[in-house]
Amino acid sequence: MTSEQQVVPVNIEEEMKSCYIDYAMSVIIGRAIPDVRDGLKPVHRRTLYAMWEMGNTSDKPYRKSARVVGDVMGKYHPHGDAAIYDTLVKMAQPFTYRYQLVDGQGNFGSIDGDAAAAMRYTEARLTKISEELLADIDKKTVDFTPNFDGSLEEPEVLPARTPNLLINGSSGIAVGMATNMPPHNLREVCEAICRVIDNPGLSTDELMKIMPGPDFPTGGLIMGTEGIRDAYMTGRGKCVIRGVAEIEEEGRAPRIVITEIPYQVNKARLIEHIASLVHDRRIEGISDIRDESDREGMRIVIDLRRGVAPQVILNYLYKHTALESSFGIINLAIVDRQPRTLNLKEIIGEFLKHRVEVVRRRTEFDLAKARERVHILHGLLVALENIDAVVATIRASRTTEEAQKALVAKFALDEVQADAILKMQLRRLAALEQQKILDERDALAAEIERLTTILSTEANILAEIRKELRDIAARYGDDRRTRIVEAVETLEKEDLIEDKPMLVSLTASNYIKRIDLDAYRNQRRGGRGVIGMATKKDDGVERVFAASMHDHLLCFTDRGRVYWLKVYDLPEGQRTGRGKALVNLLPLAGDERVTAVIPVREFQPDRYLFFATRGGTVAKVPLDEFSRPRQTGINAIKLRHDDALVDVKMTDGNQELILTTRFGQSLRFHEDSVRPVHRNAMGVRGIRLRNGDALQSVTAVEGDHLLTITEQGFGKRTEFDEFRGHGRGTLGVRNIVADARGGTVVGSIAVYENDEIIVMSASGIVIRTKVSEISIQKRGTRGVRIMRLDDGDRVVGFTILNAEDRDEE
């Protein structure tokens, strides 16, 4: 080691920390985060400035992109041609930039993710709006700094007449931070800035009336303004963007046509994703997908199968594909060489601060130039007034320097004026030329007065900025592309399921399933039906009813408890399938069985549930007392130890009811004789029973007739007038013959003439038939055969299918 060398001990932890911070700041300031003033990162700024410097402007022919990239890399940005060309390409893409900064000719990529052609094949030039970013750069409006090798100078920032950060947005990932700023509409941004100039205390809510939210180049729908308001208030927020899709019902099958997709979504990948969902059977009902996009615009056509619900398919696409995407807003920008998260007013304020400085420096530059010119004109006018003496003085001088000094000394001029006189052409001696000088002097005097006025107060500078912004909005502004609509609630499972009528069947062993009603074709009365469920030898279908997919199912058990299910949560089985045990869907205890299921769409407070027990007890409870589901269930009615809940019906509180027993007795009474009680009440006597009899069903008096069906497939319709009102708690009257041939009563239900019924047997045989084919008979008769049964089989349940259900089907 020489005497001039020495070892300096360094703490490696501190050294690495210092080096990493230097690297991080270099990436933040010099690469990834835009400057709040012109909205550009260094590579964008250098590309635009290089194109401006080489005369590659909008009024000149296109230049090869390779030429531009070479200039930028050789003079200002030595970080590789790929990064520069990628920047150039993005600034030329109409689906990336809301207002393109580069006018490209050739293949600059597509919204399908296709890459741009090589730089040797494409050409580019500045757009008119990008020239507004560079306007006045030659008037000392911004500071310049040496380039990477000190051979040239480049601008630290562009003068930026347009609020580029807001109208085009920016995105980038630095070290430990990122920015993601959306584009906005130029007219709205310019108007908002003008309003802030007029009223600096303008609130964010008032600004949002002018500038309601982002405006993406690909259009789309922004769902709600809450996330936008958060971003405008705090600098961070999130907006949900949906593609624009229409449902076309023309033709035999419907289709979904997508004309706009969310910002930064790859169209080809979106289509591929939808196709994969169809292939994997995660979405049903799509028969074909076609991309019919062309130069006129985007058009993705999704053909659907007949009978499917288009809105459900569209909801599924919103939920599971990029057709609905979130844009996380992070308004991070460089302010005074430091990264800062800014709210909307701060972004506008920083832009205005920059523009005030630019306009001041530009005005000072123009004022100095005007004063210099007036000074020279004064000298020329002195020379013209004394032209003979001036000419004589010049002729008497041996050199130019001697003539200059003589003019300065003799006519009280300075060197600049004397030099201008020496350079003056003889044609200026003409009278008209002299008048031009006078006119120019007067015009400059007015201009000097105007420029001086601008510089006199900041308010005048802001007025100049306002005028420029309105001019820019008028020349380059366009209509908003992205519409802002009311937010919709998050798509739930229900939104992805078609609300169609289903047949729900429940076996004696509490197996349940749902199946499309169209699985059962209509048959004439007395037919044998089709297999509706394959059951075990010791099991049989006990109840069957129709419900819509979105209905709540209130499942009441023989112990008087109630549990909640959604119809779409039931297993969808084949026509002959058995279904799924309710014990796997509900937390049933021991031998607890579901004996009644009520489909409910809305829990209206003016509706009631009317309970009937095997021992003839009835109770009436308001429906809204069951509106808050509990996973473990709740007590619905209190039962005596030897009783069980057999049936539940929904009423409006002002109906007449008919109770029907196993032995065919029926009792009609008005429900106002049963006062409403709260849940878990005991109830009162509904009908008096003979030995061995049991209450089987309860139905409301509505419709045209009372339909009663027995176990052996016999049934009839009876006029309601046949059942005169009796007092609650009496025996009632004979309704139907319940003997060995007809069997005991399965139940009664009110029907209309144009209804259909679906009847199911214990062995799972199902028949669907019209009510009008069942004859009307008096009380005390057996009825007609509705369903022909095999030996040992019996009817266990039936449900009504009214006209509305058939229309939905």
UniProtKB/TrEMBL annotation:
The active site is at residue 121. Keywords: ATP-binding, Cytoplasm, DNA-binding, Isomerase, Nucleotide-binding, Topoisomerase. GO terms for cellular component: chromosome; cytoplasm; DNA topoisomerase type II (double strand cut, ATP-hydrolyzing) complex. It catalyses: ATP-dependent breakage, passage and rejoining of double-stranded DNA. Pfam families: DNA_gyraseA_C, DNA_topoisoIV. The keyword Thylakoid does not apply. SMART domains: TOP4c (SM00434). Gene3D superfamilies: 3.30.1360.40, DNA gyrase/topoisomerase IV, subunit A, C-terminal, Topoisomerase II, domain 5, Topoisomerase, domain 3. Residues 33-496 form the Topo IIA-type catalytic domain. Transmembrane segments: none annotated. GO terms for biological process: DNA topological change; DNA-templated DNA replication. The keyword Nucleotide-binding applies. InterPro entries: GyrA, GyrA/parC_rep, Gyrase/topoIV_suA_C, Topo_IIA-like_dom_sf, Topo_IIA_A/C_ab, Topo_IIA_A_a_sf, Topo_IIA_dom_A, Type_II_DNA_Topoisomerases. Its EC number is 5.6.2.2. SUPFAM superfamilies: GyrA/ParC C-terminal domain-like (SSF101904), Type II DNA topoisomerase (SSF56719). It is found in: Cytoplasm. It is an enzyme of class 5 (isomerase). GO terms for molecular function: ATP binding; DNA binding; DNA topoisomerase type II (double strand cut, ATP-hydrolyzing) activity. A motif (GyrA-box) lies at residues 523-529. A type II topoisomerase that negatively supercoils closed circular double-stranded (ds) DNA in an ATP-dependent manner to modulate DNA topology and maintain chromosomes in an underwound state. Negative supercoiling favors strand separation, and DNA replication, transcription, recombination and repair, all of which involve strand separation. Also able to catalyze the interconversion of other topological isomers of dsDNA rings, including catenanes and knotted rings. Type II topoisomerases break and join 2 DNA strands simultaneously in an ATP-dependent manner. Heterotetramer, composed of two GyrA and two GyrB chains. In the heterotetramer, GyrA contains the active site tyrosine that forms a transient covalent intermediate with DNA, while GyrB binds cofactors and catalyzes ATP hydrolysis. Few gyrases are as efficient as E.coli at forming negative supercoils. Not all organisms have 2 type II topoisomerases; in organisms with a single type II topoisomerase this enzyme also has to decatenate newly replicated chromosomes. Belongs to the type II topoisomerase GyrA/ParC subunit family. This is DNA gyrase subunit A. It comes from Methanoculleus receptaculi.
